[in-house]
Specification:
Elements lengths: L5 H46 L4 H5 L3 H11 E7 L5 E4 L13 H10 L5 E6 L4 E8 L4 E8 L6 E8 L9 H4 L1 H5 L15 E3 L10 E3 L5 H40 L1
Parallel strand pairs: 7-8
Antiparallel strand pairs: 1-2, 1-3, 3-4, 4-5, 5-6
Helix pairs in contact: 1-3
């Protein structure tokens, strides 16, 4: 066989391409379930860290199978809502049927376009309610989870993550516990614009719905601030109405005690 002619070269190249594609497809099919399991466990870790089910260190030291059980043991209900604030679906919460909405980019687009959003709400037995946020940082997407107390306007905890923010600067939204701790006890002013503020010297005003931005990470802070407010606006009809009645109830109880 003449190995120097064009036909041989084309056939040889085609065979190599087919073999390599087959190997890659086989590897992907084998690794796919493990990758999906890791992604699900990571989502649950972030969510439960925000909700304070255990400390972040404890949660990240827990293996995947136990994370699934921890979630199943602590979740009360999980469902989805539309931009009208009404429920439009239920999510499985048993260990063998945990369902999540963790593809945020399509939902972010639906929120901004006023489309058919499917926004998750996770209610834990502790009374805490967890919702996600998603937006654009300096180098890629930023996202996270915000946990509310049962009153639905007091922040109980947060967990943020990113795809590629600058180490030592924007990456602090994930890496620095002190940044996440700033949010605990703050409130979201549903109906206001903005409902929450993450900006330079925000806390100096004494506002309950403000946290200082990270020094030197202006674009990451702006991106996270926008993500919080865009997604809070999307949840306002669901969370804000309940929070309003909770505030009225708390005021009535306080008045009776006085």
């Amino acid at each position: 066989m003449n190995t120097n002619n064009n036909i041989y070269t084309v056939v040889y190249t085609a065979i190599i391409v087919v073999v390599v594609a087959g190997i890659l497809a086989f590897v992907a099919s084998k690794l796919g379930p493990a990758q999906q399991a890791n992604a699900k466990a990571e989502t649950l870790r972030q969510m439960m860290s925000a909700a304070g089910i255990k400390s972040t260190d404890e949660i990240y030291a827990t293996r995947n199978a136990d994370i699934l059980q921890l979630y199943a043991d602590n979740i009360q209900e999980a469902y989805t809502i539309g931009l009208d604030g009404e429920k439009n679906g239920e999510l499985g919460i048993t260990k063998d049927n945990i369902q999540l909405v963790d593809r945020f980019k399509p939902q972010d687009r639906a929120i901004k376009d006023g489309g058919n959003a499917t926004l998750p709400v996770y209610v834990f037995k502790s009374g805490k309610i967890v919702i996600p946020v998603y937006g654009a940082g300096l180098w890629g997407p930023v996202w996270g989870y915000v946990a509310f107390e049962a009153d639905r306007y007091t922040i109980a905890g947060v967990y943020f993550d990113h795809e590629g923010e600058t180490p030592g600067l924007g990456a602090k939204i994930k890496d620095e516990p002190w940044f996440r701790e700033k949010f605990a006890g703050k409130t979201v002013e549903w109906g206001d614009t903005p409902a929450f503020r993450l900006e330079k010297n925000a806390e100096a005003s004494g506002a309950a719905n403000a946290v200082d931005a990270i020094t030197g990470a202006t674009m990451t802070s702006k991106g996270l601030n926008e993500a919080l407010n865009v997604w809070f606006a999307a949840y306002e009809k669901h969370m804000g109405n309940a929070a309003f009645f909770s505030m009225l109830e708390n005021h009535a109880i306080n008045a009776e005690e006085d």
